[in-house]
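1st attempt posting a full record on here, be nice pls
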Amino acid sequence: MVGTDRHWSPFYPAQRPTMADLIVDNATAEEVSRHYGDFWRQSTIIQGAYESEGFFPAMGSGGIWLFFTASPLINAEGRIVGAIETLQDISARKRAEEELRIHQDSLEVTVRQRTEELTHAHAELAAKAATLQETNEELSQYAFVVSHDLRAPLRAVRNYADFLREEIGDILNDEQRGYFDGMTTALKFGDELVSDLLDFSRVGGEGLTVHPVPLDEFLMELKNELDIPPDAELICDRGLPTVLAERILLRQIFSNLVTNGLKFNHSAVKRVEIGLASCDHGFCELFVRDNGIGIAPRYHDRIFKMFKRLHTHKEFEGTGIGLAIVKKAAVKLGGSVRIESEVGSGSTFLVTLPAVERNIQR
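the predicted structure (as tokens):
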């Protein structure tokens, strides 16, 4: 402001040097800081110029924010003979920065609240999972005990029925023999059901210990153990990988799949083939392919559930538990099982299991 010594008055309530005054007086950095604190800096554009910003409550209707730059005026000899100070109203920018800060604070509060809620929810979920695990273990143990205890009375009834038939068989008429046949069939089914329930409960038991299992060797043993009928064949490809598994669970998986492939089959020569589909990322996918009756895609999920039979007991014997055992055993081993099948085109079950690293093709 030219022609007055009150150029400070629009900005400050009491007389004090402006930034232009300090430049003219060749003030040191310490002297500038005494008046402007930490809210000033040397200009990176104009040599010898200072920049600062501040809020001036006496200006405007509610005060304004100003950004100002004070630059020295230098004569031909290089001496400072004056200074020029430019002002820029940055109130709008400051309001925007304040609104952004408020939103950021609000966001931080929201994030903290959501984090606390998620932590609490995770703790509750973990507690429920532990309770569920305990309940499942109790149910498996209960199923094991009940199934085990049912075997003795079922076999006793079957034995008594056989004894009675031997003693009075000569005087039975055809209708009465039919009653005995029906009772024998029902008792046989009950014994199979109890046996399958025992197998299912054992799969869910604790104490899983996995070991490297060479599939070539394992499947050769399984093939010798299974009762393959004369009109059927089990083909096991050679050069199969070594998987990390428990042999009992592995037997449950492949014995059930082979048995089903031969049972649900009307081919003149029933055939089941076991081979390698793929091996990568620490897992191997094995296929169990049959030339049986096939399964419609809409039933592909249903068949892995307990007691979900697609056929009557007269059409095909069984309890409806076998594939549930397969799925439970595969999951227990850290793998999975799925099916690819169409009616009349056979079925291919794909079993994924953890593999020993040296099997993996990089």
